[in-house]
Design brief:
By secondary structure, the chain is an alpha/beta fold. Helix content is 24%, strand content 24%. It contains 3 helices and 7 strands, in the order H-E-E-E-E-H-E-E-H-E. The strands form 2 sheets. It has a 4-stranded mixed sheet. A 3-stranded mixed sheet has the order 1-3-5, with no helix packed on it. The chain is globular, with a radius of gyration of 19 Å. The C terminus is likely disordered.
Length: 135
């Protein structure tokens, strides 16, 4: 009986852990793809704890987090710290909007190539009593 109860407990713990696991969001960063028109709802909801990964061939692009004005104008701020690994992981650690651009060629990839992305991060559903499951 004790072994059966232990097995049930492990099964329930596994299901809860999977339901609360962070969802990885991969962005295939590519010149000419208009990210500001991508239906991000197809990625489900961005939540605190979900990793956001920008994937691109190293040396062809970068990822720079900017403010809303720099995002709109595709301007690379002087204090910018570009990510350049080709598999840049962004930690989603607070609710709210965040803006990213490709700063290559002084923002030309953003301006002419559409390489800009805004995300809206929500508080985790798990903190409100359970994570949404995909339809």
């Amino acid at each position: 009986m004790a072994n059966k109860m232990l097995g049930i407990f492990i099964l329930i713990a596994t299901i809860v852990a999977q339901a609360n696991a962070a969802q990885k969001h991969e962005i295939y960063w590519k010149y000419g793809k208009k990210y500001d028109h991508v239906p991000l709802q197809s990625f489900n909801t961005f939540e605190i704890g979900d990793p956001l990964v920008f994937i691109y061939p190293r040396g062809t692009h970068d990822v720079i987090e900017v403010d809303e004005k720099s995002f709109e104008d595709c301007v690379v701020p002087p204090s910018a710290k570009p990510l350049t690994s080709g598999k840049d992981v962004i930690k989603i650690d607070a609710p709210g909007k965040r803006w990213f651009i490709c700063g290559f060629k002084n923002g030309k990839h953003c301006k002419d190539g559409g390489m800009k992305l805004m995300i809206n991060i929500q508080k985790p559903v798990a903190a409100q009593g359970g994570r949404k499951l995909p339809n």
